[in-house]
Amino acid sequence: MHRKIISLLLGFAAIGIQLASSQSLSKCFFQKTCIECLDTDYACAWCTDESYGMYKSRCMTLDDLRANNCSESGIETNFNFSMLDIVQDDPPRDFDRERLEAVQISPQRIKLKLGKLEPHSFKFTYRPAKHYPLDLYYLMDLTWSMKDDRDTLVNMGDQLAKALANLTENYRLGFGSFIDKPIMPFMQTEAHRQANPCISEREVCEPTYGFRHRLQITKNTDKFIEKLKTSNVSANLDNLEGGLDALMQVLVCGDRIGWGENTRKIVILATNGYLHMAGDGLLAGITERNDKQCHLSQEGEYTGTLQYDYPSLEEIYRVLVKSKTAVIFAVTDELQDYYRSLNDLMSEFTSVGALQDDSSNILQLVNTGYRDFVRKVEFTDDSPSYLEISYKTDCGGMYTKPQLTSKCDNIEIGKEYEFFVEVRLINYPPESVSNLTVKIEETLISNEGVELEIDLRQACQCEMQNEPVTGSDLCTGNGDYSCGMCTCKHGWIGKTCDCNLQQFESSVDLLNQCRGESEFDELGPVCSDRGECFCGQCLCNPGFEGQHCECSECTPIFGLICSNHGVCDC
């Protein structure tokens, strides 16, 4: 009894395997080209063997092609192309002062070969390094109402150095200030008010200017304090400031500002005013759009202030993305809602802190802002539209299972976080593209990431290695032979281009030869819907036979037709 049950189970298993194989075969069977064949199903294979025979389907499963006597050297499959190789995998390490670098993302380089049905998956690790370098640029509104804030910063001195040292041992500081465009209606144009825009306050101050870069980023905190001391306030006419003009220059003038290559870059924009934006320059007759280029004189003066309009938020955002720089808006209480609305549009790169009237809490804002940016991580890539790259992570145990996301907001310095990546080719690129390099990077970390060197399979090897044979005998002289198939000249069709369309009155006449009679004395479907019509003859799907594919083959089980208990009769 048990033996019978086991025999039955084995029989059902065999039937299941045969059905699965049959399903794959039916998907493969009617593909006309090698690349269509390999893209249809991972199990499909293509026969390029010239001696295989022109009337047999060249697209089948690997086992079926072997069974049909296609030579091993003439079979192209999906199995031989796929490859993923980790080329560089330096382990994570904290910042090294001798090498002036840290390793936060591992591995660094991966080579892979990619076809349409062959997605590749791999894992990379992110571990934020201890004492990663920080470049901090203090961009200050030095209009008259910010005089107390400047004085407060000057008096902080050593406190500033200690506060930054608590964040990282490797910090540097830079400094610049802004007022507004020195032109009506943003300033008063009477000569005595141009010379001293603070005359209404019965004080003396500097003439209005747009932006002034005062100190290149440096390790010397004393220089920073000294520049603050010697920087005088100025004034403008309205309650909007030129902060975006200044911010654009800080972001695009990398060498002049002194930004480092392997650093975390943060700008603190401290102000008690609103911001002029794109279009406001028209009020002063300035019509040229901001060109997002560096325009700093040798003295650090923004020379384009009267030539270019203020930048838009979109332009600022794009430059933040490119430069990988974060901005902390340190603003007074009454401006919080305004700046938070700006932050909502650029939340990956900005944060907002409440600045006390005299800036006495600026160190706290620096501390909080820095930790906010370190706590967030997001990975992006520069893949083209024909590639699809997806990410999953559990954010170091924050989720019970990996989520479909590339970002986490619970990052701790020194802790490892795993990201799982899948790379998929969804469409073929232009024919000239056979390999490319894609970079996976964190939005705010410079010069680190995972570099993917990708070879794409755009065609079968036989198509790339051999030129078509023009007027081949295999194509009856009426077509070109390549990769096991004929491309027929105009007026000829068929596997070997031997079917002359001029011999038939119409394509309907040609198809009718492949139709059998139905029970209503009418012509039935072409090849009984079980095959294809080639020059008036049916080529049947696997499992069917007969002139019009009207007969079902009897599938042998364990090599026995009808289990050896009957006769297969169409």
UniProtKB/TrEMBL annotation:
Q: Which residues form the Integrin beta subunit VWA domain?
A: 33-462
Signal sequence, start to end: 1-22
Organism this protein belongs to: Culex pipiens (House mosquito)
Where does the protein principally reside? Answer: membrane
This protein's source sits in the domain of life called Eukaryota
PANTHER family given in the database record = INTEGRIN BETA SUBUNIT, INTEGRIN BETA-NU
Q: What's this protein's name?
A: Integrin beta
A cellular-component GO term for this protein: focal adhesion
| GO BP, one annotated term | cell migration
Q: Which residues form a coiled coil?
A: none
